[in-house]
Amino acid sequence: MPIPSSLHDAVRQSFDDVVISGRHLSTAIENLFREVHPAPGLATTLRSVLFQAIRYNNIEAAIHGSLDGIVDPNLADVPPFLRELIRSAYGDDTDRVLSSFLVDAPTFIRVNTLRTSVVDCYDELIAYNPLWVSGEILRIDRPFGLFASEAFEWGWFEQQDITSQRAGHELNAQPGQRIIDACAGAGGKTLLFAAAMQNKGRIIALDTNAGKLQALRHRIARAHVDIVDPRVITSTKVVKRLAETADGVFIDEPCTGLGVLRRNPDILRTLTEKTYLELLSIQADILRRNARLAKPGGTVVYATCSVLPSEGRDHINAFLASEEGAPFTLANSWQTLPGENGGDGFYVARLTRSSAS
After folding, report:
1. Nearest to 345 by CA among 158, 68, 90, 80
2. What is the pLDDT of residues 256-267, one digit of tens each?
3. Domains and their CATH numbers in the chain
4. How far, in Å, CA of 342 to CA of 89, rounded?
5. In 3-state terms, what secondary structure has residue 332?
6. How far apart are CA 350 and CA 348, in angstroms?
7. Shortest CA distance to 333 belongs to which of 300, 356, 286, 355?
8. Fewer CB within 10 Å of terminal CB in the chain, N or C?
C-alpha cells in the first residue's frame, strides 16, 4: 500500500525526530499514529517505511518504495566499528548476521496462566490471528490494536519474544523459591518467573531505574501478581545485603541490544565504540556482584540480547576463571541469532554454585 502524498511530510518529521532529535523510533511511530489515525493496513505500511528508513538512513527511498523488500547488509547504516566486531566474530557469516538485523520480527506473547488458560486467551484474541507455538507462547500475526484489547487489560498476556521466554525458563523458577531478578527493568521476565512459581514464594526485582520499576508495579497489578518486591538500587549496599539469599538469580545484562535490532533499529543511532566498551566493563561488574547473591547450591542465569561473544561467552569464561567464579560451574549455555525460531538474538548461560561454597 503506497503512502498518500499528504502524509509524506509527517513521515519525514517522524524520521527527523529519531535521527536528529534522538527520539525512540517506537515513540515517533506512536506520535505519528496519534496525528494521522491510520487504518490497520496503512499503519503497517507507515511502520514499515520508518523501519526501512532508519535501517538504511534514507527516508526518501523508503517513502517512495525503493527499499521495499530490500535486505542488503552492504547498504545498511551500521557503524564501521560494529561491522568489524561482527566480522571478527563471524567471519564468512558476517553478511548473514548483518542481514538478520534487517527484517521485521514477529509479535509473540506469553499467556499469563495465573489469570487464564492458553485456550481461553487464544479464543479471546482470535481477531488478531493468534498461532499457538508451544507452552504459553502465542504468535500474533495481526497485532494492530492488540494492547488496547480487553484481554490485555484483564492481564491475560504480556508481549514477550519467544527467545526471551526461553531465556527466562532457563532459571527453572519453582513455587516457594526466593528469586532475584538482578536487572529487572520493566519486569517481563519477573512476571514469567511469578507465573512459573504459581505466585508462591518471593521475587526481588532490582534495577537502578526507578521509572522502569514503577512500570513493573503497574504490570504486576494487572497480572494479579503479589510476590514481587521491586527495589531501586541506590547504592552497592542494596545488592550486598542480599548475598547468598537466593535460590535463583537472573542477570539480564544491559547490552548493545544487537539481538533485538529487528525491533529497535534506532539502537544504532546512539551506539558508539566508547559506549560499547563502557558496556563491557559494566557487564563484567554486574555479573561479579550479582552472582554472589545465589545460595550455595543455587543457580545463576546470565543473559544478554546480543550476538557478540564479547558480551556473552567471553564474560562467562573470564568469570569462571576468576576467584569470584571459582565456586561456579557452567551447566548450560546457548546462543541464537535474530530470526532463529522467529525469535531475537540471545546469549544465555546457566551456572550452578557449589553447595560447599
Report:
1. 90
2. 999 999 999 999
3. 5-70 (no CATH), 107-159 (3.30.70.1170), 162-353 (3.40.50.150)
4. 22
5. strand
6. 7
7. 300
8. N
